[in-house]
């Protein structure tokens, strides 16, 4: 299944799901579903993040030390809770679960942020040689808020003048590509600095091909062979 077909199925599935809201945006496809995660699920995920968090990294080199200052952890995909959430997101979008990267948790303390960036991958960057072999381009992003900090921590899309405040359990989904399947600059977004308290989120990225499977490699029992 190609990028265009994946996008068609995702937008149709999201559009047909009760409770999903699609803001009237001309430049990107973005959807919001409140209460996707329960408070208990959010609390359990926060515990996992706190137990395993490390300083966040970037795929590309950036000399700005303040560009991404959060802490991050990859969640155990064999954990029953994580496995269930993975499956629910894939069903919601109608996307083959094999296309999904590992669910990632992020923690932002006071003053921490992720400056404006894109989730799609740039073929001009040094990392592209490896990334195109283990899944290729990122297509869709699904991000869920796990709590509400005292102040700040909104997710902002500056090019479309959209700011989304944190809400416990709320899921935000967007297509990183345009109608032609090319990277969409309008998906530029930022995690604004937390002014009070702590913010927790989880993020799921999908690729154009099974993630972690090198081109030409065989898959084991239908799951990616991670490299």
TrEMBL record:
Obligatory cofactor(s): L-ascorbate
Protein name: 2OG-Fe(II) oxygenase
SMART domains recorded: P4Hc
Gene3D superfamilies cross-referenced by the UniProt entry: q2cbj1_9rhob like domain
InterPro entries referenced in this protein's UniProt entry, alphabetically: Oxoglu/Fe-dep_dioxygenase_dom, P4HA-like, Pro_4_hyd_alph, Pro_4_hyd_alph_FE2OG_OXY
Domain Fe2OG dioxygenase as annotated: residue spans: 94-208
Organism lineage: Bacteria, Pseudomonadati, Pseudomonadota, Alphaproteobacteria, Sphingomonadales
PROSITE patterns listed in its UniProt record: FE2OG_OXY
Keywords tagged on the record: Dioxygenase, Iron, Metal-binding, Oxidoreductase, Vitamin C
MF terms (GO), sorted A to Z: iron ion binding; L-ascorbic acid binding; procollagen-proline 4-dioxygenase activity
């Amino acid at each position: 299944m190609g990028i265009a077909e994946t996008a068609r199925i995702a937008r149709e599935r999201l559009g047909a799901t009760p409770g999903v809201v699609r803001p009237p945006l001309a430049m990107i496809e973005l959807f919001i579903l409140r209460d996707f995660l329960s408070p208990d699920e959010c609390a359990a995920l926060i515990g996992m993040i706190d137990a395993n968090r490390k300083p966040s990294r970037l795929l590309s080199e950036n000399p700005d030390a303040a560009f991404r200052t959060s802490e991050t952890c990859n969640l155990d995909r064999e954990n029953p809770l994580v496995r269930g959430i993975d499956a629910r997101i894939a069903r919601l979008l109608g996307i083959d679960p094999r296309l999904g990267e590992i669910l990632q948790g992020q923690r932002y303390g006071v003053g921490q942020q992720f400056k404006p960036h894109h989730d799609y991958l740039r073929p001009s960057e040094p990392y592209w040689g490896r990334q195109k072999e283990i899944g290729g381009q990122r297509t869709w992003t699904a991000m869920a808020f796990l709590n509400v900090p005292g102040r700040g921590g909104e997710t902002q899309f500056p090019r479309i003048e959209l700011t989304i405040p944190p809400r416990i359990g709320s899921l935000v989904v967007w297509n990183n590509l345009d109608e032609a399947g090319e990277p969409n600059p309008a998906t530029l977004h930022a995690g604004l600095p937390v002014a009070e308290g702590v913010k927790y989120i989880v993020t799921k990225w999908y690729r154009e091909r099974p993630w972690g499977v090198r081109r030409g490699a065989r898959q084991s029992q239908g799951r990616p062979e991670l490299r």
